[in-house]
Amino acid sequence: MCGKTQDQANATEQDSAAVASEIGGSGTKPNPSSLAPVNLDHGDPTAYETYWSKVGERSTITFTGDQSLSYFANAKNLCWFLEPKLEEEIRRLHHVVGNAKVDDHFIIVGNGSSQLIQAALYAVSPSDQPQPTSVVSAAPYYSAYQEVADLLRSGLYKWGGDAYSFNKDEPYIEMVTSPNNPCGMTREPVVNRPQGKIIHDLAYYWPHYTPITSQVDYDIMLFTVSKCTGHAGSRIGWALVRDKDVARKMVDLMVISTIGVSKESQLRAAKILGVISDSCLLDKSPGLENFFEYAQHLMAARWEKLREIVKVNELFSLTEYPSEYCLFTKEFTEARPAFAWMSCKSDMEDIEKILRGHKILARGGKRFGSDPKYVRISMLSRDQEFNLFLERLSSIHGITSGN
Amino acid sequence: MCGKTQDQANATEQDSAAVASEIGGSGTKPNPSSLAPVNLDHGDPTAYETYWSKVGERSTITFTGDQSLSYFANAKNLCWFLEPKLEEEIRRLHHVVGNAKVDDHFIIVGNGSSQLIQAALYAVSPSDQPQPTSVVSAAPYYSAYQEVADLLRSGLYKWGGDAYSFNKDEPYIEMVTSPNNPCGMTREPVVNRPQGKIIHDLAYYWPHYTPITSQVDYDIMLFTVSKCTGHAGSRIGWALVRDKDVARKMVDLMVISTIGVSKESQLRAAKILGVISDSCLLDKSPGLENFFEYAQHLMAARWEKLREIVKVNELFSLTEYPSEYCLFTKEFTEARPAFAWMSCKSDMEDIEKILRGHKILARGGKRFGSDPKYVRISMLSRDQEFNLFLERLSSIHGITSGN
């Protein structure tokens, strides 16, 4: 398993660098041409750049040279590297959106939710077991869970595979991703045995992606600025944690592995989350478009275009989502996930390979513990790349590998 | 060993939160009173705040809301999340100071050098060994090495203790810290067996702390903004890595554990490092005080005051450093380390306990694989705390635990 993980780690990096270089240079605005592949492998959330450029001054932040030198942000807090302003804005946003209960939870900030996954695994793994505790998730599952769980061949935990197959009478940890990455469906735990610890990854539980059907209240809930506002470059995630000992152990991991989290990113994230909350409140937002409405319309329009093309060419199919009442928008809506989970109608095909042959890079189903007939496609690219993707997809008329 | 690590992790966090709360509140300017302990346990480098407040506008940076949304910073680089401007300023600073060769090395940015230690251990650990590879360092060694090595009970590496005691005929990794944390001495590898990999931690190899006696050129060299400029809150470290495969594996770890490093911190660090380089070049720095000269004078003055007090009370002793020619300042100077490594003249005393009894918090020798008669004291606090420390130290006339 470890060798496999190593291969995967290498593959991840090589893929990242390779495909990244193909989308166009320096990480600034790409210039897709008919020759370069369009890279929708990652969920790089650049779709929201236009919104933020329209917001202007309100979302600008300045740092003087003598600011934030110290390791400490709030020495009185259990999470002593968490900026008080970020904590305040995280709590406010959850109150405004109504997606998660925060009043009885500790807030732990992390270098993206990736680090918080590791911190949560560390915190809930029993330390008295002879073997590492199994980490499971229902397939299709987020491809990073296996990478994180197996990265250092930990004696505390290891990847245990598809939660649907887990039937051992021993401690386990279940990652529950809802809405799910890659497929966008609402999820519940599937193992349901007495010795389990559950980590809820709620990165996509925001109104632009899915109807907010309840104010959830779990023991450990993970969120990230990346998918909420689009600021993936800031590497800010947060965990809402009910139990003080678990919260303390998560802080321990963060201290030993990185001695906390960038103060600049935290303060900027506080500013950005504040703008989003303000944008939802009429009295605070003269001239400021409601971010979630903006993003919801953007995503709905993209999904509509994609569904039209898939319907016409008849080779592929997309996941369908039920219409549900959203407590935030007060409307019945369908999910508009950050990723499209697309499959070949023909069972025997490797859809990642087919798309690659048509210069569309996406992540194949096998990486998610699923079948090569599935592929995950980011819906969060810039307009230019998304339109190029649609153009290329619509040009596929017969299934060949294209190689 | 793992249980011990866990205890240490808890101790670290509890210490951090507890002592932090004692230094005065929210992480901003503390207000030490005669009742509160002065916390010199951490090397929190707030001593340089005054310099940065004098620099003013030149070190200010502004971010607009639509900046740096993407995960990518430079898709063409092996380290694709490294901001090009930061890479440029790191290379420039090493050229200006002359402390390390950079032209034949890859630069990998990390969330502080803590993450780079983990990444380097991951990258150089052989993956084909039946047992985890031993990580060793010559005592007294930086207390975090053991914590990082044992944190997740990795099957790749584990803490192996004092390098002076390592005599196994098997692969090992030696951490060489020069100047050394805690004692400030120049260090070389001590094991010198054929199967070793060496990681050079050069966090303090800057002219304000030690004479720059050569332009070093090792396989893996770790640096951090925290100790160089004082911006610990930014969590930016960098590694200079000669071998491409090692560099790639370090990037792998960074991608899986945190998907890179805060763009805001990187861009601000680029700005700050740029100011420091400019401050060393007369033509670029009208009105800008040479940072290293400023910091060197500050440290020299603090060391002089401390040595005077220690000389008078006759209970303690301090490490002595040889005078060496510094290629940067073109003068013979002694080291003025970021930590004082102080001992009791009486062999039987626990100096950490003695100081604690006089409301001075510092880190005892046992944490560094040394004797309780030693203690590490940060020399990088703000003036107010440093002066309070001197005042309290000078009031100790007879050794009692003070409890």
UniProtKB/TrEMBL annotation, chains A, B:
SUPFAM superfamilies (alphabetical): PLP-dependent transferases
Q: Which GO terms describe its biological process?
A: amino acid metabolic process
Gene3D superfamilies tied to this protein = Aspartate Aminotransferase, domain 1, EGF-like, alliinase, Type I PLP-dependent aspartate aminotransferase-like (Major domain)
Q: Which residues form the Alliinase C-terminal domain?
A: 38-396
**Which ranges of the sequence are coiled-coil?**
none
Highest taxon of source: Eukaryota
Q: Which cofactor does it need?
A: pyridoxal 5'-phosphate
Keyword vocabulary terms for this entry: Aminotransferase, Pyridoxal phosphate, Transferase
CDD domains xrefs: AAT_like
Region: Disordered, residue numbers: 1-42
As for family, the record states: Belongs to the alliinase family.
Q: What is this protein called?
A: L-tryptophan--pyruvate aminotransferase 1
Q: Which organism is it from?
A: Coffea arabica
Q: Which gene encodes it?
A: LOC113718642
